[in-house]
Amino acid sequence: MYSALQGAFDPALVALVAALVLGCAGIPGLFLRKPGSGQILSALVTIPASLAGVAASLLLLFSHTTATYVLQWNLPFGPCDLVIDPLSAFFLLPVFLVSAAGSLFALGYWPAAEHHTTERGLTFFYGLLSSSMAILLMARNGVFFIMVWEIMALSAYFLLVTEHEREDVRRAGIVYLIATHVGTAALFVYFSLLAAQTGSFLLPAAGSFSALSPFASLIALSAFIGFGAKAGIMPMHIWLPSAHANAPSHVSALMSGVMLKMGLYGIFRTLTYFYDPPLLWGTVLTVAGITSALFGIAFAVAQRDMKRLLACSSIENVGIITTGIGVALIGVSSHNTTLVYLGLAGALLHILNHSFFKPLLFLGSGVVIHATGTREMNLMGGLGKGMPRVALLFMIGSVAICGIPPLNGFVSEFLLYLGLFRQLNADSLVYLVLLAPLLALVGGLAVIAFTKLYSSVFLGTPRSSAAVHPHEAGLTMLVPMAFFALLCLLIGVAPQLGLHLVSPAMTSFYPELASTGLAAEYGVIMGWLSVSGGLLLAAAALAALLWMWRLGKSGVTSAPTWGCGYQRGTARVQYGASSFSELAVSVFNGIMRQRISRPKLAGLFPGAAHCCEAPTETILERIIVPLFTIAGVSFAFLRRLQHGQMHLYMLYIFVTLFIFMLWAH
Amino acid sequence: MTNITVINGTIHIFLALVMPPLLLGVIGKTKAAFAGRVGAPFFQPYYDIIRLLQKGTVFSTTTSWVFRAGPIVALATTAVAALLIPFGAHQSPISFDGDMILYAYLFALGRFFTMSAALDTGSSFEGMGSAREATFSCLAEPTLFFALITLSRLSGSYSLSNMLVNISFGVWLNNGAALLLLVGGMFVVLLAENCRIPFDDPNTHLELTMIHEVMVLDHSGPAFGIIQYAAALKLFVLGAFFVHLALPYATGNPYLDWGLFIISMLELAVVIGIVESVMARLRLIRIPQLLVGATILAAFSTLLVIR
Asked: What is the pTM of this model?
């Protein structure tokens, strides 16, 4: 089928054009008079282009081809190659899927009628962000890569500060901007070192140099900092919770579902250069990964803001993925093909899975925030009755993200677990298996975080007037969510499909995997997972049918919830979000800190008092902010250079360039 | 060969369907004996469940479909877990590499829905119960995984059937210390996960110290019957895991082995009954300490076998 189609069109060209179309989709809206027409036009262009992009990426993935284009430019940085190999094609899938879903969702969520001042900019930068991420995956010239990287980082910034009239949004924007540029600075070092190593700005081919070469460790370290900051690996995660919480929800979906993966892509790409990565690299990635997973989910448990909770859980998921990459890398170093296979399969499939359930949850939180006007979970409750469809879809996302069968999150974690257990009977590195109980703890905490999120938002009775009259979301908002929920279910009950999707990218990363029988072996195990998932659904359906039949015969009465005899229960005596997690927070006190202010009560009849518990951002507040304050004071003398006169700034750049030119000659 | 497999599978499913409430009956009888009472008949739990299934249902007006899904999912997940665990010296009907991870995560799914169903009622008691359940079962999770690692290492296999059937007196002789630590850790998990004394008291409904019973306060009629049955099944399934570790008898004769398995399960029920009779419930703040202690016991056993 592929060869027949190739005659008609070239999938790589389709993907490239689709990426460019995404970037242009928001432009007409900037000039159209009628509010909203640009948004609709953008969605109408983005969705078909993205679908074509998905189809093209799938074709490229399954045909194991590598397509190369050379962009003609006259900048002095060598040829500018655009290459799509299976690894790029794999990462293109979430870019196109989430962009399309988000642009449809925006029609209902951020309608121009309500947001006429911000809608145009939002639509434009949304397209630019999607497009830059797609092109980033194809860029193979270091300088071009940095340019696209900056377009991506800056358009994300402009999306994030859409509601810049709010103080906390501006603050989140500044933190993001600084964090992303620290990352970019590390990438400058990275590409300079690569150029020094290879003599060209073209990214090196797979397996082209040794990790023992002089700059290798520095290259790996700068990649870890630069790409890790974008992915949100601890301790470079500080920008992530506030940025994802304060952006409009479809933007959060794109940032969390896709933009974080660009950092992970960078790490993957860097690792392909070396044919002999040392054990230390894999160990560092594994330790950083499991730390991010554990601390990320612990922070999530303590949150009160529903989008911050989701953002913290992104740190957790990136941590799980990074653990998978680290484990696979340890496999490469110790020549253990099974470990490489399972680590990579787990990591790559989790990347795909996270780009299904996380956008689903962020879009769902968008609907909830749209309906209630708050992000504070303690003020919500009972929304499931007003918006049953959203509640159902959100439930699917929550179960999937906890890594519970029969949905997709379980499959990727299962592969990773199996990799760790397999290590038990390997000759060396048996201690790797001790990661399994830690992952189990992460899973247990995830269940706490997401039962807290789901139940305090959708279950029980409304805790404040904000949650009293929710309305069901429109079709433009429901369809994208339903789409992601179906994908979660599909990979969950047919995990073989997931394994098929990741295997081309895996062989492109580690070619030795192609000649092993591992794919067939684990295909059978995936089959068993389908069987168990099917049995589970069948058992649940059978039990439900029998129960319904019994209910029909024995009769049903409605009554208020049993209040243990207390007649005056109000919605406020319910367990709230904070009370639900209070016990867990007190048990894990070392990890999740809360700032608690309790009033001193005196006398027999103390008056009204106010108590406040807020989760803290330990690393940001205790380490980074004081560090920046010190830096701000000690570098105050440099402020004289920064006077706000644009022409002098341009002069600085010119003079610097000129000096470099003289130096070079 | 296939004939034997079919017969064993049938017996397995039959036992999983029919035997669980009997354990509750034996526990009750043991406790009664300790208290000097005659006690309810052994089959009382069956009568209770049948009676509940015939009753009408009261649904709280606050609840939604999640409340109704709670018991169903709890039952379905435990039932599938029962197919993964081997009973006695026999292979389980479903067995594949990595099934132990599915086994552990099935309980997480059941818990997710049980807790959500409790929170769906909007009652503060049930919220309290589910907050405790969430925290305590999260602490119990790593213990189970340490146990699985130890067993996987001892047997060299990655499926529950092989790793549990592998345990024998020979393995005990060689790895006694590791297995003893594991038995300690897993007994704590068994009691905690099934909400037995000293973690929870299945007999009192309305105390603020309750975990599981308080979560199902609003379920009535057939739904409550399903919950009771699912709880008994969970005790049976986790108990079968524990019995493999603590009482690894096998004769080689398939029919005798089934008999031995039934006897071992009844012994376990008696032991639980004795523990419940001689101990008081722990104070709530002590529970996390005991659970972490159990995790460390299991971690020690893992270190002993992988060193």
From this structure: 0.95
